[in-house]
Amino acid sequence: MSRRCAAIFGLSLLLILPVLLQRHVQAGDLGSHLYNTWLVLLVKSGEPLGLEIVPQYSNILFDWWLEGLWRLGGPVFAEKTAVSASVLLFFWGSFFLLSRLNGRPAWPSAPLLAMLAYGWVYHRGFFNYYLSCAFGFWAVGLAASRGWQRWLAAPALAFAVLGHLLGAVTSGGFVAYILLWGRLPARHRRWLFAAAVLVLAGVAVAVARNLPSEWRDYRFIHLTGATSLLVFGSKYLVPAASMMILWAWALLSPVPCSGQTEDRSLAAHLTALVAAALVLLPTMLWWPGTLHMLWYIEWRVTLWFSLWVQAWLAGRLPPRVQLWTCSGVAVLYFSFLAVDWYALGRQEQAFHIAVHALPPRSRVVTAATSPLERLSPLLHMIDRACIGHCFSYGNYEPSTAQFRLRSRPGSPVVMDSPRSVLALQEGRYVARQEDLPLYGLFLKQSHPFSLEVRALQAGEKVNRVKVPLPPEWF
Q1: Are 54 and 413 in contact (CB under 8 A)?
Q2: For residue 13, which of 76, 69, 67, 87 has the smallest C-alpha distance?
């Protein structure tokens, strides 16, 4: 037992080292979450910012964590603690789930689970969805357990709802499927799968008829199972392709090495079910009551697909072969991340230096982006840089009506229209007289780590500037 506890503690510490060692944790929307936590604290202290806080039951859990931790120890403590806790919940939840399905500890899968913990969803900074998946893993693993432990799936699902409805509905569907699977005779289980696919098709038809939505052809690339590892540039094709080769090897292996046949069959069903969801469900939709589309549905769901593929194929290769192969891929993957984190950290430090040359409480915007365009890791660097000093006028959260902090018309600290925010991000925004005084951050002589700040004039366009970050290779 002591060796097991030591292994768990050592691996947990290793998992959160990337969070603890970075000066500014590079995780997409994380900067926006932190910035809006600061605004929430200002609003609650009574400052007239043209913002309001509305009650919300979902897409809120991570923001609650940040606020509580901020009050305890400040923004850096809140950032590091909340992200570290999220990573540990995610990793050990997925570890628990695979262990339950395969009937043995999932140590051979641990390197892949670590990569998924620092995968696409993490680097987009979708931490409410990330937490909903983390608690969803625990819920599905508990549902796959025996006896009284199954009842614990309900509170885990409740926490998943507080995180994000999409993650909660997904994990709730898996819980229901597993519970029904356990009650049905083996000869009837194929009908359960057919019924689940029909439900997905019905949901797709209902969405198409009743909600503005889109289906993009690129969703089919997620059927490879490895797109969760495509976090930045083309170099991440190497670890993604490596995992695909390992899975193909396992799939073509003639005799499974370990694991219970029934559990492997369940994992195969769940893999096929997520594949059907990736084909049938929309890539984006407009949820009633919000002012911004829910993007990247397929990118979020593919996280579950990667997990189920691993659960299905984990027992088809010798554990040592799988462990060492996955470990080699993980070393390469995290080496790429270390290079990118270092470069992005330097760029964000340039944002911090630039905004602190502004007068206190100034409004500032930037259209700096990376070759990754809409998923640019530079998008929210200005948000975190402004905390305690200035206002990131183009922050997207308050205008979307998807978060607890909402902008009122004419707010002096943030744009109140999603269209204006999108125009700014795309380099089409023209400063208005009512925006002034407004400052813009721009590249200084095309140097990626040097920024200059200047006052904008009415009618001046905030042109988008591409920064060549993260580096394509090394």
Answers
A1: no
A2: 87
CA distance 181 to 264: 13
16 half-sphere exposure, CB direction, 13 A CA radius: 19
pLDDT in tens, 152-193: 999 999 999 999 999 999 999 999 999 999 888 888 898 999
Asked if the model's pLDDT at residue 255 lies above 80, the reply is: no
Q: Would you say residue 422 has pLDDT above 70?
A: yes
Tell me which residue of 268, 312, 333, 328 sits closest to 117, measured CA to CA.
333
Long-range own/partner contacts, residues 65-70 (CB < 8 A, 24 or more apart): 66/33, 66/34, 66/37, 67/37, 67/40, 67/41, 70/37, 70/38, 70/41
Range list of β-strands (E), 433-474? 439-444, 447-455, 465-466
Amino acid at 202: G
The pTM for the full model equals 0.95
One-letter amino acid at 69 equals: L
Average pLDDT in the chain: 92
Return the pLDDT at 260: 53
Instruction: Report which residue type is found at 119.
Output: G
What would the two tokens of residue 334 be?
A: 């995290």
287: confidence class by pLDDT, cuts 50, 70, 90: confident
DSSP string, 195-243: HHHHHHHHHHHHHHHHS-EE--GGGGGGGGS-GGG--SSGGGHHHHHHH
- The Cα–Cα gap between 184 and 186 comes to 6
- Strands 284-285 and 213-214, by their bridges, are antiparallel
